[in-house]
Design goal:
Distance between the termini: 15 Å
Shape: elongated
Order of helices and strands: EHEHEHEHHEHHHEHEEHHHHHEHEEH
Largest sheet: 6 strands, parallel
Number of strands: 11
Radius of gyration: 25 Å
Structural class: alpha/beta
Helix content: 25-40%
Length: 391
């Protein structure tokens, strides 16, 4: 048998993707780095996830699955999984052999750690000048906080997201769902892809930095505007207030957006509040927000006539809305099925399950089918054997 590539141990089935043939080493843990690498895998890249001997800590998170972490499975699909102890000579040597063949390396160590481990950008770029080296950090590569550990909800709290999420005058509130991590993952995939594109012109790799701080503030770019001469202490809450939001129905809750004149008129007509549509007191988003205490009680009285699901059907395309559902309802939602967002995947321990796949639609290169996140240490022996054979 010819010398095998350790990146090709799992055959990708289906059509090629825009990143097919790109080889990625994922040394990151938790969500931002790993899911960024999963987004690359969704586009066809071959990804080797490298865990320390005690594993990615996400494997230890609470899970109602008996044999595996639901969070780890969702964040790490379509990867080969190995274990290396980078604090040992053998572990470091194995990684450096993989670096020679890789196109991309991703880690989420604090800035002072890579040099101590012997895997800093300057060293690895000597081994592979074409390497795209992506570091995911909490606060960036410079400044007084660069070596602090950063986590999604820590950055939410620090950057004002929680203050604005809470009720006016109330306590700050976390936005659950790891939104900063997932947005950082998207920035990672975009930044690495751009660096790969630039490499086609220059032939050289480069450093790519993604931080949770940048992610959290970029998500708030519409709030992060301070005009010259303007008071700093001004209202930055972009909620239109009152009408737009989640409201109770006879059964369940429904979100309604009626900011444009067209949608406001349709909402009034559908709910029997026609008189409000022609009232000059309510003829703009700003006015409706100012008089929400007059409008909302009338709206709630009208919505009590039907369930949330019935209102969703009645509003149709004329009023942007959604009945509040459980995440479980999305597995068989007709729009989700039509868009092929959920795939059936076989896991070596869990068995067959359904999960998200290929979030970006490409017309000509849609990408290969997903496969399950690796169980701990699943491919270590095969990968190390392949790297040693290639020496």
């Amino acid at each position: 048998m010819d010398n095998p590539s350790p990146f090709g141990l799992v055959r990708r089935e289906g059509p090629t993707g825009p990143l097919s043939g790109v080889k990625v080493l994922d040394l990151s843990a938790y969500i931002a780095g790993p899911y960024g690498c999963t987004l690359l895998a969704d586009q066809g890249a071959q990804v080797i996830k490298i865990e320390p001997p005690d594993g990615d800590n996400l494997r230890k998170y609470p899970s109602t699955l008996a044999v595996e972490s639901r969070a780890f499975m969702g964040v790490n699909r379509s990867k080969i999984g190995i274990v290396l102890d980078l604090k040992t000579a053998d572990g470091l040597a194995a990684l450096l052999r993989l670096v020679r063949e890789a196109d991309v390396l991703v880690h989420n160590f604090r800035p002072s750690v890579p040099k101590r481990l012997g895997i800093d950008f300057d060293r690895l770029t000597l081994i592979n000048p074409r390497l795209i080296y992506c570091a995911v950090t909490g606060y960036g590569e410079r400044g007084p906080m660069k070596d602090k550990a950063g986590y999604d909800q820590v950055l939410q709290t620090m950057t004002g997201m929680c203050t604005l999420q809470g009720k006016r005058g109330g306590a700050p509130e976390i936005t659950y769902g790891s939104v900063v991590d997932y947005y950082a993952a998207a920035l990672l995939a975009a930044g690495v892809s751009s660096a790969l594109y630039e490499r086609e012109r220059s032939g050289r790799g480069q450093f790519v930095g993604v931080s949770l701080l940048r992610s959290a503030l970029t998500m708030q770019s519409a709030r992060m505007i301070w005009a010259e001469g303007e008071s700093l202490d001004i209202g930055r809450d972009m909620r239109s207030g009152g009408v737009t939001g989640i409201h109770p129905a006879r059964e369940g809750y429904i979100y309604i957006s009626a900011n444009t004149p067209r949608f406001w008129k349709a909402l009034c007509e559908k709910t029997g509040l026609d008189a409000l549509a022609g009232n000059e007191r309510y003829d703009s988003v700003r006015k409706r927000a100012e008089h929400a205490n007059e409008i909302v009680p009338l709206l709630h009285e009208a919505l009590a006539a039907h369930t949330a699901m019935e209102w969703e059907a009645l509003f149709g395309d004329e009023v942007p809305c959604a009945a509040a559902r459980r995440i479980e309802d999305m597995f068989d939602h007709p729009q989700v099925l039509a868009e092929d967002i959920v795939a059936s995947i076989e896991h070596p321990a869990v068995g067959r399950y359904r999960g998200v796949t290929r979030p970006i639609a490409f017309g000509r290169t849609p990408g290969p089918a997903p496969f399950a996140a690796p169980v701990f240490d699943q491919h270590t022996d095969e990968v190390l054997a392949a790297t040693e054979t290639a020496e």
